[in-house]
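Quiz preparation item.
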């Protein structure tokens, strides 16, 4: 029997952008670092069923934040579709099953807004899940993320009463901030833009080229806000969770509440970086979906709001980018 009063919390993916923000957030809320359990990939490959099972049996955490995943932009998803579906399915299945077997009562799974159909009505509500075809470029990743939600729900439905487990899911919008991936080809749109404007400033390039028309709209959330939302959803009461979800539709959207065009966000980044050149458009490249915006009304009703504006978040992200020279060459 454990004598600890504080729960022992395992953060899967603690070196990643979101996992590291969750660690920061928990520590800022007064959780003693000795109660936070982490393993890097060399110590524990989450795609290995036996290693994950042994880890959970040996450490027996009380809570799990599942923020480990194979993550990337369109190019990476298109180039390595097998890795995106296999790694993510294995990580989720191994962690959720081993957590259950070792007695973990509370787990939070991080999904993604790409679980929603390509043509879902905007803003996308939680009920849009499984109502239409997915975006083909990241379908394997999205299918794995949907499987993660359904794993949590199925374990709750089968074992919730008998074992007192409560496994929840959150679906983040596009995230950015410290620890982001700035690879010129494999990164998401916002870090890619930060990297390109910075390079253009340093090399005094006359123009920065944006793909598409710049009119597509996207939603962005600063990663520390995502961390606070994750901890919020993990900790509100089971009654409140049950009142606001259903056993087979239990995921909760996490977004900033508003979206912005690619041109407008590029201009904000241009200003923050201090780039004096011009933005031009390569309209031979696709815009992607005209709009991707999550309905986060449910989470707001449950008492969470983001703390940082997009401008504040972008400034902090760029400050962090400048502090870590190796990021710029990844
Ligand atoms: N970034 C976004 O915009 C965004 C948007 C929506 C949802 N999400 C979701 O949020 C979660 C976290 O994303 P992120 O942006 O923090 O990603 P990230 O920075 O790439 O971090 C992912 C972490 O998972 C670890 N990992 C991957 N495969 C592993 C394996 N086989 N064994 C052990 N560890 C492994 C990575 O370890 P290494 O450090 O060793 O690679 C890394 O620390 C993911 O579930 C993602 O789908 C992210």
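Solution:
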């Amino acid at each position: 029997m454990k004598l600890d009063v504080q729960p022992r919390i395992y953060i899967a993916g603690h070196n990643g952008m979101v996992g590291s923000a969750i660690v920061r957030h928990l520590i800022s809320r007064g959780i003693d670092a000795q109660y936070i359990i982490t393993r890097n990939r060399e110590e524990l490959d989450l795609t290995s069923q036996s290693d994950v099972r042994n880890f959970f049996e040996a450490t027996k955490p009380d809570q799990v934040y599942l923020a480990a995943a194979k993550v990337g932009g369109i190019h990476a998803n298109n180039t390595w579709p097998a890795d995106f579906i296999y790694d993510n399915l294995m990580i989720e299945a191994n962690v959720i099953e081993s957590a259950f077997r070792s007695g973990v009562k509370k787990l939070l799974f991080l999904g993604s807004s790409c679980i929603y159909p390509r043509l879902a009505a905007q803003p996308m509500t939680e009920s849009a899940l499984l109502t239409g075809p997915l975006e083909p470029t990241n379908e394997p990743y999205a299918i794995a993320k949907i499987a993660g939600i359904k794993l949590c729900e199925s374990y709750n439905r089968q074992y919730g009463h008998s074992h007192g487990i409560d496994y929840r899911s959150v679906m983040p919008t596009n995230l950015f901030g410290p620890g982001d991936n700035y690879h010129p080809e494999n990164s998401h749109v916002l870090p890619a833009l930060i990297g390109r404007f910075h390079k253009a400033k340093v090399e005094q390039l006359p123009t920065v080229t944006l793909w598409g028309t710049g009119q597509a709209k996207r939603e962005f959330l600063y990663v520390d806000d995502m961390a606070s939302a994750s901890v919020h959803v993990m900790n509100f009461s089971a009654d409140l969770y049950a009142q606001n979800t259903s056993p087979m539709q239990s995921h909760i959207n996490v977004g900033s509440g508003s979206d912005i065009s690619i041109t407008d966000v590029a201009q904000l980044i241009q200003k923050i970086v201090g780039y004096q050149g011009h933005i031009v458009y390569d309209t031979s490249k696709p815009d992607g979906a005209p709009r991707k915006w999550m309905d986060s009304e449910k989470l707001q009703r449950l008492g969470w709001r983001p703390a940082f504006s997009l401008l504040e978040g972008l400034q902090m992200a760029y400050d962090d980018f400048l502090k870590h020279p190796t990021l710029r060459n990844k």
